[in-house]
Amino acid sequence: MPQFDIDAVRAEIHALDKSIYMNTGGSGPLPNSVAQDIISAYQDVAENGADIPTVRGPVRDRFESARQVSAGLFGVDSSEIALFRAISEGISTVAYGIDWNPGDEVIISNEEHPTGIIVWLNLVERRGIKIKKLQISLDREELLSRFSDLLSDRTRLVAISHVTTDTGTRLPAKEMCDIAHARNIPVILDAAQSAGQFPVDLRNIDVDFYACTGHKWLLGGWGTGIFYVKKEWIPKLEVSWSGSGAGDWNRHTDDLEFTDSAHKFEFGGRHDTLYSGMSKGIEFVQSVGLENVETQSRALTDRLKAAISEIDGATLRSPESNEFSTGIVTFSVSGLSGTDLNAQMFERWRILGRPALNHSSMRLSCAFFNSHQEIDTVIDAISALANENR
To answer: pTM for this structure?
Structure first.
């Protein structure tokens, strides 16, 4: 695939003029096309009224178009896609769509985001389930062996991150799905840090559920999310929350027949206009090419990790091997908490990241729009802080 024009890409993301933006794993910056789509949609609503046919009709059309774009991103059918507001909605839809019994088990990892933990803690209290944690290893065979050993006859679900939030460790998702499926155990992947970082083929991974957000690596704005349900699971997963578009209701007999698509899991009012913006974000990333996105991110990440490893007083907390690496680089500096490190990096050099690993470290996201010149500044900043705090 031809290389992309990074200068043209950066010119479309105005926020890059204000900082060295390396918190895409938290919230990605908006390309101008995304921002203008959202602004124009709300302007249309403000000037003409939300339910005027010439406004409402196009909004709904663009909502459904976003479903098609989302399906294309992952190589699946649009009937397997529900448009949600957050990853937590997708994880909760699965969590409360299973008929748990006391003693049933869910497998998570020791590096999950609170979104991937709290829902299960709630079910420990409400349904008496048991949480088992996979201790992540950076040895593939050891990791898969640990994972296989955790599975038992009481395991009802594996709920794990495709890429972990704090260290950016990319897990062998396909192999883990194969191992779980051999025991007839379904898998949901939290895709917060994977969707938009590299190509994702859900048919190849063969995962049962995939939940991602539009506001991180897809650059699609807050309040949007994508939830994939494998076709065979659509009729098996119970509907826990519902809305008027979930199926056919007979007003006279109260008979209800849910739709045979993932649409039945969509519920409640939402900002329909935002999903067109999310679609624009996906298209922006796809215009660069996800292979190019991954290649550029890897080049930046490799440089940054190598430099951190050479800085006395700085410690790399993310994987070094390409097999487990992504665009997330987490590091610590002796003598500084992650909170202080994060604050000084922004205040002194306008480097935007976030604290990580229980505020002991700082997480930086090397996105495709970041430049090698920015990495030079980051390396100089880390070196300066490490020297000052010896």
So the answer is: 0.94
